[in-house]
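To: structure desk
From: M.T.
Subject: fold request, one chain
Message: Could you run this one when you get a chance? Sequence is below, nothing fancy, just the single chain.
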Amino acid sequence: MTPQRYANVDGLRAIAALGVMVEHLFGDLLRQTPPAAGPINAVADSVVHNLSLGRFGVALFFLISGFVVPFSIGGERPLAHFAISRLFRLYPAFWLALAILATMAWLAGEPPSTATVLANMTMAPPQFGQPWLSPIYWTLFIELVFYVLVALLFSVGRLRNVGVLSVLSLALVAATVLPVQLRTHGVVNLPVQYLGMHLSFLFLGLLLRLWLVERVRSAGFSVLALALAQFVALLSVSDFSLARGDNFIMEGRTPILTAYVLAFAVFLAAIRFGRPHSLMLARIGLISYSMYLFHWSVNVTVYRLLPLTGQISDVAVMLICVALTLMVSALVYRGVERPMIMLGRTMVLRPGVSSRS
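Reply: Done. Structure tokens follow.
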């Protein structure tokens, strides 16, 4: 990818991060104020029940990761490089975010257990029977599983094999849909999980890369087939998820479906036409990971001083939250993320050799 196209992808990251932030701001407003508390409350309610900006941002992040991350594998020790670069890219800033969350909980008189903190440090606390310190971090485990699958595909020489990728992606969708349908029709009570469904969107990004950048013609058909399967799958599990209240389909079928369709359309148009061309968005995109990690902590701190009311004044509170999140994220990127990324590279690369991640 050219530097221009990298800036383009950073712009998409900014849009995704801002979508997640606005969704959480609106969600906080609706949780903290009574119905019809004021005009901003009404706006938030209307947006949340028509478009899930949070799921839009998550889907866009997944497409971006699938489009970019698998193709960072390279060099003399490709898998070692990949593992170490991901480790230094993700964990240091994440551990700082956990330290802040644990401190906030301790100050609030509800300190997390040592087991909970240690499990969270792995990015996979549910696998150890522990809750997330912040539920918004659930996407990180999805990314980890994707990295493992990508490494396995690379190790067997199938990372660019459209047929293998297509079969795997459709199997991941089926792994979510089949248990739901079997339960719905009273056949057998298999455990239901949405991991496969989420992973399929990362692989959709990978297939889009093969089609749009590497010009593999067969990948275009696979993209169409997978996108159609995902849409049908979302329809088929929506009623089950809503009835069970498992938060895969949250506010309703319409906002979630709209979010996924919009994310796919925005991503496809952005890559096809090389948009957005915005230096500001590109710079925000560079700090998007820290925005994701720290915006909840910033919001909670601001709300203690400036509680949400549902009135017009909440616009100023939300702008303060966004501004402070950008400031904190820029500091974390410069002080933690970027130095750790460079340290990871020096551990696996010879002098004079560079790569993009």
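Reply (cont.): Residues 351-357 have pLDDT under 50 and may be disordered. Let me know if you need anything else for the meeting.
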